[in-house]
Amino acid sequence: MTAQTTLLDTAFPIEGRTRRLARDAAIAVAGSLLLTLSAKTQIPFYPVPMTMQTFVIMVLGMALGPRLGTATVLLYLAQGAAGLPVFAGTPEKGIGLAYMAGPTGGYLVGFVAGAWLCGALAERGWDRSWLKTIAAAALGHGAIFVFGFAWLATLIGAEKAFQFGVAPFWAATLLKTALAVAVLPPAWALMRRMRRS
Q1: Is the peptide bond before 91 cis (omega within 30 degrees of 0)?
Q2: How many Å apart are CA 176 and CA 75, to the nearest integer?
Q3: pLDDT tens digits along 102-142
C-alpha cells in the first residue's frame, strides 16, 4: 500500500528541503517538550496514578509519521540520557543512563517502537477512522508493554513484572486509546472540511 500523507504534512505543508528540515526540527523539539510535560503530569486514576506519556507517543507517531515521530522520541531519550530530568520521577529517582537502565528502561525503548509502529500504520490511513485508530493505538501500546515487560522480567521475574508492570495499567491504556480516537479522526475530518471550503 502506498504511504499516505501525514496529518502534519496535511496541516502544515512545506516546500523545499531546508524549510522542511527546519519545520521538522522545531516539531521534534516541541514534541520532546510535550513528552517531558506528559511525564511530569500525574493524574489520579485507578489502580495507580497515570501520566499521559503513552497517549502523547501514540498521537506523535500517528500525526508525524514513523520517521519524524520516532526521531522526536529519540530526541526525548537523548535529553534524558544526557542527564536532563525529563522522565517521570526524575531527578528524585535518578537521572541519565542510570535511570534508563532501571525498571522503566524497557518502556523507554518501547516508546520508540510504539511511535514508529503508530506512524507506519498512520501512513496507511489507520489514523483517519475511529476503528483503525483504536487498532493502531492498541498495537502501539502493545509494543510499549512488550519491551517494558521483557526488561522488567529480567530484573524481577515474569510474574512480578506482569503484576507490577502491566496489570495496573489496563484501564489507563483503554482511556488513552479512547483519547487518541477523540483527537485524530476528528482532526482529519477538520482537514477535509478546510480543504473543501
Answers
A1: yes
A2: 23
A3: 999 999 999 999 999 999 999 999 999 999 999 999 999 99
HSE on the CB side for 161, CA within 13 Å? 19
pLDDT band for 56, please (50, 70, 90 cuts).
Answer: very high
pLDDT of residue 194: 86
Query: CA-to-CA distance for 57 and 112, rounded, in angstroms?
Result: 8
Asked whether the predicted pLDDT for residue 197 surpasses 80, the reply is no
Look up residue 128 and give its amino acid.
Answer: R
- Percentages (nearest 5) of helix, strand, coil residues in the chain: 75, 0, 25
Helix (H) or strand (E) holding 100: helix 96-100
Exposed/middle/buried for residue 74 (C-beta within 10 Å: 0-12, 13-18, 19+)? middle
Q: pTM to 2 decimals?
A: 0.94
Arithmetic mean of pLDDT, 46-69: 94
Cβ–Cβ under 8 Å, residues 53 and 111: yes
Identify the CATH assignment for 7-196 out of 3.40.50.300, 2.60.40.1090, 3.10.20.30, 1.10.1760.20. Answer: 1.10.1760.20
In this structure, the number of other CB atoms found within 10 A of the CB of residue 15 comes to 6
